[in-house]
Amino acid sequence: MASNCRIFSINSTKLLLLQCFFTLLSTLLANNSHYTDQFVVRVEGGPKVAKELAEKHGFVYLGEIFDNYHHLRHHQVSKRSIEPSLRHHEALHSDKQVKWFSQQTLKKRSKRDLSYFYTDTVPYLNDPKWKDMWYLNRGNNLDMNVKPAWDMKVSGKGVVVTILDDGLEKDHPDIKENYDPKASYDVNNNDDDPQPRYDIINSNRHGTRCAGEVAAIANNSICAVGIAFHAGIGGVRMLDGDVTDAVEARSLSLNSQYIDIYSASWGPDDDGRTVDGPGELATEAFIHGIEKGRNGLGSIFVWASGNGGRNNDNCNCDGYTNSIWTLSISSATENGLVPWYSEACSSSLAATYSSGSGGEREIITSDLHHSCTTQHTGTSASAPLAAGICALALEANKQLTWRDMQHIVVRTARLANLQSSDWKTNGVGRHVSHSFGYGVMDAAAMVKLAKVWKTVPKQKVCTVYADIMDKIISPKTHIEVTLSVHCSKVKFLEHVQAQITLSSTRRGDIHIYLISPMGTKSTLLERRPLDTYRSGFVNWPFLTVHNWGESPDGEWKLEIHNEGRFFGRASLTNWTMILYGTSEDPQPLQKNKHRSLEYSIPTNFAYKNSTSNKTTSTFPTTVTETVLPSTEDIILLEENFNDSINYNISSSDYDNNSINYNSMFFPGMSQSDYKYSGVNSARKKESEFVDSFRNVSTSNSDMGMHPVSSVSWDKVFKNVEVIEANNSCTAISRCIFLWCLLLFSIWWMNTL
Ligand SMILES: [Ca+2]
Ligand SMILES: [Ca+2]
Ligand SMILES: [Ca+2]
Ligand SMILES: [Ca+2]
After folding, report:
1. Residue from 269, 347, 341, 345 nearest 309 by CA
2. Do both 576 and 490 map to the same domain?
3. Closest ligand to residue 176's CA
4. Which residues are within 5 Å of ligand 3 (an ion), measured at CB?
5. Looking at the record, which segments are called Disordered (predicted)?
6. Which of 213, 249, 543, 570 is deepest in the core (most CB within 10 A)?
7. Residue 745: C-alpha distances to residues 79, 610, 620, 742 (Å)
8. Residue 602 CA neighbour count, 13 Å, CB half
């Protein structure tokens, strides 16, 4: 290094030294822990024993985190210190009752909101802001289908959601009837009342805003409407004070037999240079939650994917969203764009609508001081919307496990108007993107599917270790390593983790891709220009959900790129694949159910198309609602329209039966359009058709539909065969009946 330095002129030497100094400083700062006055001890014998122990050593007892772990504070210990309090360490260490203890260090956790019209009147609810709640009521396949879910008589009744945040204004007139004290706690102040601390800049409004999105009361002439407006809503005040591992663990494990869904819109700094995740207690709390919460069905943790877009942050570097236990949610703007704050990563499962750029509308919800806001923003706003939608699904089926919920989200999320350059189809034909996961959440489809859902089989895990290596990745090059997997326990994948240890002179120069045996390429890490740390990654479990449903067997390929300059060396030392999933088909009966349900598609589609060619009415049209069997059937139609492409898996050719079906499904298309060679033109027509049907403007059409491979078409066709065999008679007669009814109505109208 010294000999290299001499080559430079004085100025560049100074510059280099300065650079060295800052790197050293930032490394030092990064590694420096700030000790707090909080301690956690593991003591057997319950809270009584722990309280006695606390008293003996002069601690204040704050509460039990979970089994045998207790949260303490010592008033004589400084609230902030670079040094641990050795005297108290000594005391706890020498006490035989104490099995384990830790002095809690400070964690940097930031809230995920941002510091920053026209109306489509829907005469539905009397809440003054309802008409402006575009993400719930604009129709045209451009909202989250919450209204049709409400029409199925679900509103979150009997479901309990808790917001882990900076408090909750529990006496807010649009919230108080749904406020649930049993789902609430103040971890910052150690009392039962999560009421926020008020200051002149309303810095603690975040939790109240998130709560209103979930459970603001409907039709009370006040402010807005929550998605699950009959759900119980609680607040945990935990961000307005020192955040430690213990504080997070207590919040995540609060009343886990009572609370169903925890919504969190915070995490490590989105500064584009942090790699941080849950500590040991918070990890334990997650495990406790998914294994024991909700009587063993598992707590549902909904998590905001992060707001670090402008800093080129990557949500896979955030251990909370990158965790398999959290249902990670990103955002889409009103126009279906990737928001400027959005972080793309392979661990996001789905998206909900939220704020965008100037001119695009934001989220409406309750606000501090009993008020109402139209300016809730960021992925902070997205996670509670997702939590509300999950509450609707949970009311429809209280037996859903934490994994069931993720399965249902994967199967029902829609492309809608979401535009991203990286939409792709995974190995089982599901569309997925790094910005939006599987697409925008669809409340009606989730409720529908939840009702017929059978609990997925037990989660199995295969862990496959690559040979210990020390593979150098020179600057401006990349390496490819492969790992051959044969996993007898897992045949249908859910989460896939690539646990990686690598060193690098500049962590932000590294980008990593994982290619599955079925050819699905996940971006595990993008470049992060602001991440100058030299610390690399130590056993970091990069998560991808893009392989959902694929088989794990075959060759996995890991591609690591190093964009470093000059001496920017990197080296891969360890790679382990952790493959989660099931040995049996997670939802075998579902396929049959959907086949029979799919039967309703041709009827409705044919009919709708015949009437909606000239009408500009929204979906579903009033005409349809009065003439066709029920709104419910139309919802089925849309839900299954996606499903038929998504997950009816088989290999097969097509026959005459399928032609009948397709000519009904996509009227005006001939058999030849569906030949292998004609797949592209078929796709085009399909998208044109869907556009005219859904009244989506043509400029969005190509983004609205996803390219469908010939394999996917096969899947549709096979399915059709089954349907036609069982139901063709009823299908045609129903269609003819409706046509006759329509013609008769027209004739009758004319005679008047
Ligand atoms: Ca309080
Ligand atoms: Ca209201
Ligand atoms: Ca982040
Ligand atoms: Ca997650």
Report:
1. 341
2. yes
3. 2
4. 270, 306, 308, 313, 318
5. 172-195
6. 213
7. 78, 15, 20, 5
8. 24
| Residue in 60, 48, 49, 61 with CA at minimum distance from that of residue 98 | 49
What CATH number has the domain bearing residue 79? 3.30.70.850
Write the DSSP assignment of 324-352 as a string of letters: TTEEEEEEE-TTSPPPTT----TT--EEE
Query: Which ligand sits closest to the CA of 212?
Result: 2
Question: What span, in angstroms and rounded, lies between the C-alpha atoms of 332 and 342?
Answer: 8
CA distance 612 to 2: 76
Domain range enclosing 502 = 460-586
Instruction: Specify the pTM.
Output: 0.74
| Rounded Cα–Cα distance for residues 179 and 186 (Å) | 14
Ligand index nearest the alpha carbon of residue 126:
2
Ligand 2 centroid to 395 CA: how many Å?
21
Q: Nearest bound ligand to CA 191? A: 1
Residue 663 placed within a domain:
no
Q: Kindly report the number of other CB atoms within 10 A of residue 90's CB atom.
A: 10
Separation of CA 634 and ligand 3 centre (Å):
39
What is the spatial distance between Cα 81 and Cα 33, in angstroms, rounded to a whole number?
8
Question: Structure tokens of 557?
Answer: 């390929």
- Is 434 found in the same domain as 541? no
User: Rounded to an integer, what distance in angstroms lies between the CA atom of residue 118 and that of residue 468?
Assistant: 60
Q: Per the domain annotation, does 305 fall within a domain?
A: yes
- 50 with 162, same domain: the answer is no
DSSP 99-162: EEEEEEEP---EE-----------TT---TTGGG-HHHH--TT-S--HHHHHHTT-S-TT-EEE
Question: Which one of 560, 586, 612 terminates a domain?
Answer: 586
Same domain, residue pair 136 and 89: no
| Co-location of 73 and 137 in the same domain | no
Boundary (domain end) residue, out of 565, 586, 607: 586
As for how many domains the chain has, the answer is 3
Owner of token pair 């800049």? 201
Same domain, 61 and 163: no
- Closest Cα to residue 569, out of 471, 474, 477? 474
Distance 182 CA to ligand 1 centre (A): 14
- Do both 395 and 253 map to the same domain? yes
Q: How many whole angstroms from 146 Cα to the centroid of ligand 3? A: 28
- 3-state SS of 49-89 is HHHHHHHHCCCEEEEEEECCEEEEECCCCCCCECCCCHHHH
Report CA(578)–ligand 3 centroid distance (Å).
23
Mean pLDDT per 10-residue run, the chain (752 residues)?
A: 35 49 45 84 94 94 93 92 92 94 91 51 76 93 94 96 98 98 97 97 97 97 97 98 97 98 96 96 98 98 96 97 98 96 97 94 98 96 98 98 98 95 95 97 97 97 91 95 96 98 96 98 97 96 98 98 89 97 86 32 29 30 23 31 28 24 30 29 39 28 25 29 35 70 82 70
The environment of the single-atom ion ligand 1, i.e. residues with CB closer than 5 A, is: 186, 189, 191, 193
Compute, in angstroms, the gap from residue 391 CA to the centroid of ligand 2.
18
* Rg of the chain taking only CA atoms, in angstroms: 28
CATH classification at residue 562? 2.60.120.260
Q: Rounded distance, CA 308 to CA 313, Å? A: 5
Secondary structure letter of residue 702 according to DSSP: H
